[in-house]
Amino acid sequence: MTIRLSSSVCLLALAVIAAGCGDTEPTKAREPVPTLNTANDPLVPRGGLSGAHANYLSRPTSLKSAAVTADAAVIATVTAVADGAPIVAAPDEVNPTVLVTLQVRDRWRGDVPNEITIRWLGTPRGGFLEGDPPYELGQDYVLLLKSRTDGPWYRPEAPDGRLQIVGERVRPVIEGAIADEVKNRSVADVKQIVVGAK
Fold this sequence. Notes:
Elements: H1 7-20, E1 51-52, H2 63-69, E2 72-90, E3 93-109, E4 115-121, E5 128-129, E6 140-147, E7 154-156, E8 162-166, E9 169-172, H3 177-182, H4 187-196
Helix pairs in contact: 2-4
């Protein structure tokens, strides 16, 4: 059996097909996605990075307790950031690492070399753990440090042991008890607490 369609039916069918292709709503000018002016904010992740939820097993309840358990406390400046060897937790879970080199400018507690390296852990999809954003070149930090047992590196005493220096004040990288304690505090105030901790 042969079905014959009139030319007007064919044109109507083509119009319906064309209308169905693309957006289902009338075409409108797309509005640009608003972005924050974060060019000079080292706590905002670099393009494409996002935070992965993290449950930290042990976090200090005060700046004093963090200072007492830390091996050292310093002010240091990030001088180099380079990719490290990835950590393979499972065949489908490869965590990138970054070796962060810092120049120690002021020692508050403990004995560390003039140059230290922190091994920073990323997440399999190229993001970072919540409360542990990437380190930025040239940024100054107050660091309460622990020596690592798996290499010649250091790590902050929990994420709370890393405080960004902004002008003469400190800024925590994660919310918590220490963040509440150091809010609007100067570097000098924090130094006094850390040096006097027993």
